[in-house]
Design a protein that fits this description.
The protein is of the alpha+beta class and 220 residues long. It folds into two domains: 105 residues, no CATH class; 98 residues. Strands 1, 2, 3, 4, 5 and 6 form a six-stranded antiparallel sheet that branches. It has a two-stranded parallel ribbon with strand order 7-8. A hairpin with a 2-residue loop joins strand 1 and strand 2. The relative contact order is 0.14. It comes from Bacteroides uniformis. This is DUF4304 domain-containing protein.
């Protein structure tokens, strides 16, 4: 019979994952964070309502956009051999959590080294956009801002055009929250100001108490 994951177990699970991904810090129990320049890479160990097991989610968070919480943007679940989400019980964790950690590392190239490049980040986000069953307007925005922050202005403009093409194919109900193609572009272009972006990054680092975390950089 599976055991319930309790508070003390959460602490040990977090500690175990930190021992495998040494570039990460504990943000909260079961939530690990690594800073790469203007972005955060996260590993979120999400328990279900019964606390019988946890799912493993890799995600990105853009520090250049002010948001009240660290959201799970451009997220990817660890999948099993059947391409289904893999849940880890407390027993399975104790028997060999490192097997799950290694599989996640192989599934997510951004976890294979601490210092990553802008191109590698953009490639990952684009993959989540292509695999998304929703309407990833925020991920499309993050692609543009990552390129802009790195001074890749021409590429950023190309991605704005690409995003507009993608968004134009979505249902009106899905785009209403950000004003459709025109509204999305307006919001993104308002953010494309280096002073504003740098100020937002610093405010976010202070708000989430991440200012002491090592910055492993985003190589442009």
């Amino acid at each position: 019979m599976n055991s319930i994951i309790e508070k003390k177990d959460r602490k040990q699970i977090t500690k175990d994952w930190l021992s495998f991904f040494t570039g990460f810090n504990e943000y909260k129990p079961m939530h690990l964070i690594r800073r790469n320049g203007a972005f955060l890479c996260g590993i979120y160990l999400q328990t279900h309502s019964g606390n019988w097991d946890y799912e493993i989610i890799f995600h990105i968070y853009n520090l250049m956009v002010d948001f009240p919480v660290i959201s799970l943007s451009s997220d990817t679940f660890l999948l099993n051999h059947k391409r289904a989400r893999d849940g880890v019980t407390l027993f399975q964790h104790k028997e060999g959590f490192s097997n799950y950690a290694e599989r996640l590392k192989q599934q997510i190239p951004l976890l294979q080294k601490d210092i990553i490049s802008c191109n590698e980040l953009v490639t990952y986000i684009k993959k989540t956009v292509n695999n998304s069953i929703g309407y990833p307007a925020e991920s499309l925005r993050d692609i543009v801002l990552a390129l802009f922050k790195c001074g890749k202005i021409t590429e950023a403009e190309q991605e704005i055009a690409n995003a507009k093409r993608i968004i134009s194919q979505w249902d009106d109900d899905a785009t209403q929250r950000f004003g459709g193609v025109i509204g999305w572009e307006k919001q993104v272009r308002e953010l494309m100001n280096m002073d504003i972006l740098n100020t937002t990054i610093e405010k976010q680092l202070q708000k989430f108490k991440l200012d002491k975390f090592t910055d492993y950089q985003l190589i442009c």
